[in-house]
Design brief:
Protein name: Carbon monoxide dehydrogenase subunit G
CATH class: Alpha Beta
CATH topology: Alpha-D-Glucose-1,6-Bisphosphate, Chain A, domain 4
Strand content: 35-45%
Pfam family, one: COXG
Shape: globular
CATH architecture: 2-Layer Sandwich
Mean pLDDT: 80
Helix content: 40-55%
Distance between the termini: 13 Å
Structural class: alpha+beta
Low-confidence stretches: 150-196
CATH superfamily: START domain
Order of helices and strands: EHHEEEEEEHHHH
Strand order of the largest sheet: 1-7-6-5-4-3-2
Length: about 200
């Protein structure tokens, strides 16, 4: 699987770089992320829950930053195990370029391999899931950066607000008792598949 995209962030390059290296911000922005903890120099232990088609699993893995050229670029190398669901591994090259005084263009090229049940689902569903997760990450990341600039209280207030919003959404989803939530997911998967 390969994914190449660009996104414009509403902050200067230095601020974008700081945010990309802030584990508290990344934890809030990565869909399904439970924890990101330092595990050596430029290495992090990550735990997250992800759903790909009918397979939903909790993944534990490592993420390492390499080829660091602050504040312009780095490569993220990642690998994770999801038990019976299988595994995922790959890398992503992330580049930041100024796009005016208060904007930055982020380019990334990611490639990944999956095995186990995930590999049996089919590349179209896996690609669709990856695109959906990436889109949600950049939506949240852009909101974090935009809100962080408007809020004089710093990032902590923004992070708490987004975390509270996520908890509310999770509670609403669990109240659906399996009726409403699966239908919503099914519609969104269908939309993603038809776009691919």
């Amino acid at each position: 699987m390969e994914l190449t995209e660009s996104h414009t962030l509403p902050v200067p390059q230095e601020r974008a770089w700081e945010a990309l290296n802030d584990t508290a911000i990344l934890k809030v922005c990565i869909p399904g992320c439970e924890s990101i903890e330092a595990d050596g120099e430029n290495t992090y232990a990550v735990a997250l829950t992800a759903a790909v088609g009918p397979v939903k699993a909790r993944f534990k893995g490592r993420m390492q930053l390499a080829d660091i050229d602050a504040p312009r670029s780095y490569t993220i190398q990642f690998e994770g195990q999801g038990g019976a669901a299988g595994f995922g591994k790959g890398d992503a090259r992330v580049t930041l370029e100024p796009a005016g005084e208060n904007a930055t263009t982020l380019h990334y090229t990611a490639s990944a391999q999956v095995g186990g049940k995930l590999a049996q689902i089919g590349s179209r569903l896996v690609d669709g899931a990856a695109r959906k997760i990436a889109a949600e990450f950049f939506k949240r990341f852009g909101e974090q950066l935009g809100a962080g600039d408007q809020d004089d209280g710093g990032d902590d207030g923004v992070i708490e607000a987004v975390a509270a919003q996520d908890e509310t959404h999770t509670a609403e989803g669990s109240d659906a008792a399996g009726g409403e939530e699966p239908q919503k997911r099914k519609r969104s998967w269908t939309a993603w598949i038809s776009k691919s």
